[in-house]
Amino acid sequence: MRRWSKHSRLSPDDRAAILALPYTQKTFGKDGYLVREGQEVTDCALLLRGFAYRQKVLRDGSRQIICFHIPTEFVDLQNALLGIADDSVQSANRTEAALIPRSALMELATARPAIRIAMWIDTLLDASIFREWVVNVGRRDSRSRIAHLLCELGTRLKTMGNGAEDGHFEFPLTQEQLADATGLTSVHTNRTLQGLRRDGLIHLNSGSLRILDWEGLCEAGDFDELYLHQRIPVVA
Amino acid sequence: MRRWSKHSRLSPDDRAAILALPYTQKTFGKDGYLVREGQEVTDCALLLRGFAYRQKVLRDGSRQIICFHIPTEFVDLQNALLGIADDSVQSANRTEAALIPRSALMELATARPAIRIAMWIDTLLDASIFREWVVNVGRRDSRSRIAHLLCELGTRLKTMGNGAEDGHFEFPLTQEQLADATGLTSVHTNRTLQGLRRDGLIHLNSGSLRILDWEGLCEAGDFDELYLHQRIPVVA
DNA sequence: CGTTAATTTGAGACCATTCAATTTCGGTGG
DNA sequence: CCACCGAAATTGAATGGTCTCAAATTAACG
Question: What is the pTM of this model?
Fold first, then answer.
């Protein structure tokens, strides 16, 4: 509700219906599967704590991370209507999620227009992030890629209130995960991060990220937050 | 309707409602804008003839193409609910499209559940393609990237009946467009295409593509069509 | 049939990779 | 509390895939 109220107007009845949803809470260890590629989607996970990543594995064994998920996000509305998941979602660190049966969620969508639209918008916001990632890995050099990724995560975390206002966040991602998200090797990611540190843009270590020069990082990452659609005109 | 009936069951009333939609038909020259980044979305284009591409332009002037659209596809359901487009869609060659007012489309979605779900599924299918493209430009080498892209387009065209069964398609894309779609330069795209030709996988020239060795091309492109969700279980 | 767009070719430079090897960090058990 | 361990981060040097920058050739179009 914290997330949806940013772009949708929910009535008290809507809120009550959401709170009435059946769910089971579950804890995942590092790299635990919230969604598994090739499997039928039976329930959707609402991420409560920790980070998750969406990835595909290639034939040669390498992998590409397609996006990160942060708390308050539904982790697989994407495949809910398509039936079979075409990618996997795994926890980046120790996470907690509420598993909601797909059928219950779909019934709620049918019954309540405002919620249905909120869900649709959520999937479109995900899609918008996928698109920006195509641009990021396709046309930016390593420095820009990583700067852009950090800008995106910083902005999303700030918006959802998961980080202090001073640009300091809990940040459990490893350099190898950052590498697989930017299409680089972990070795080169390491060197690139050192460059960002040397230039006084960020401070990153042991599970925490501090953005020292927000403007400089946006500049380095060619970051324009339009695609995150922070201000969606509320429909109806 | 040709597209939607692949994944949704539409009643005669649904079909009638679709056919009753107001629209204006319009022709676009090469690189004409169907959607312009930063602008409010007032209507959605249904592509009738020709190819279109979705792209973002970076600060340094380079661009990344995010996906291609083929006839029968709605070109901007993606941004319809988000209000402001975060990317542009332009015609790859001479195209024709039916422009449908956003409001009329949204009213139809509100009134008719089956159509609403078909539209939602369409946006999710787009998103699935975006995800695969992140993988493509992020983790595959030039040969695989281009082979994969050709496999995708071939499959999508075949599914919609836009190409003969023998792997021969109308293919109006330039090598520069292929380059911007795969995150390569046009020079390297040219050399890579020569490699695919030399190996007897494809025959490509003057606006037409023939896939000579479908299996070999899929192999080269690490192509698995799961992400295109050709068989979606029809809901309800 | 002239003009512009698109494709093709060549050679050198560079960004990122590969492959190890080393150091640091976080957690665990004695 | 310290020794130990595996995971993560860091460093170095050589290789290589792709880019850059022209320039030449071919195809498309009015």
Answer: 0.96
For B132-185, how does the pLDDT look when each residue is reduced to its tens digit (9 = 90+)? 999 999 999 999 999 999 999 999 999 988 776 788 999 999 999 999 999 999
A175-182 and A142-159 are packed helices; what angle lies between their axes, rounded to 10 degrees? Answer: 110
Judged by CB atoms closer than 8 Å, whether chains meet at A127 and B125 is answered as no
Q: Identify which of B113, B130, B140 has the shortest CB distance to residue A127.
A: B130
The SS3 of residue A114 is: helix
A124 contact to strand D (CB, 7 A limit):
no
- Domain of residue A224, CATH code: 1.10.10.10
Condensed to tens digits (0 to 9), the pLDDT of residues A54-97 reads 999 999 999 999 999 999 999 989 999 999 999 999 999 999 99
Residues 6+ away with beta carbon under 8 Å from A189: A142, A146, A175, A176, A178, A179, A182
Q: Give the pair of three-digit tokens for residue B215.
A: 């299996």
Query: Would the Cβ of A185 be found within 7 angstroms of any atom in strand D?
Result: no
- B132: chain A residues, CB-CB within 8 Å: 56, 86
A56 touches chain B (CB under 8 A): yes
- B121 within a domain of the structure (yes/no): no
Q: Contact B130/A131, CB-based, under 8 Å?
A: yes
pLDDT digits (tens, 9 = 90+) for A187-216: 999 999 999 999 999 999 888 999 999 999
Is there a domain that residue B128 lies in? no
A12 and A98, same domain (yes or no): yes
Distance CA B226 to C1' D5 in A: 42
B56 touches strand C (CB under 7 A): no
Domain that holds residue B31: 2-115
Other C-beta atoms lying within 10 Å of the C-beta of residue B38: 11
B139 and B169, same domain (yes or no) = yes
**Bridge-partner residues for B47, per DSSP?**
B97
Within this chain, do residues A77 and A7 fall inside the same structural domain, yes or no? yes
Assigned domain for B140 exists = yes
Q: Are residues A103 and A144 in the same domain?
A: no
- Under an 8 A CB cutoff, do B133 and A134 touch? yes
Distance of CA B18 to the CA centre of its chain: 21
Q: CA of A176 and C1' of D9: distance in angstroms?
A: 10
**Between chains, do A127 and B232 touch, taking CB under 8 Å as contact?**
no
A186: Cβ contacts below 8 Å, ≥ 6 apart: A175, A176, A178, A179
Answer yes or no: do B40 and B139 share one domain.
no
